């Protein structure tokens, strides 16, 4: 999985009733991650891509 600064990362909920989390890539620390992501709630976290993560390219 490849993401660039400005792309949107969606972390899909892994259990029933859990909502997806969306955020913007602010730093790519490698070609395939990890990515520093600022989520919609203001929280920043390193995201290591896995099967529950998808990337939406910026327009």
Automatic annotation (TrEMBL):
<feature type="domain" description="DUF1918">
    <location>
        <begin position="1"/>
        <end position="55"/>
    </location>
</feature>
<protein>
    <recommendedName>
        <fullName>DUF1918 domain-containing protein</fullName>
    </recommendedName>
</protein>
<dbReference type="Pfam" id="PF08940">
    <property type="entry name" value="DUF1918"/>
</dbReference>
<dbReference type="InterPro" id="IPR015035">
    <property type="entry name" value="DUF1918"/>
</dbReference>
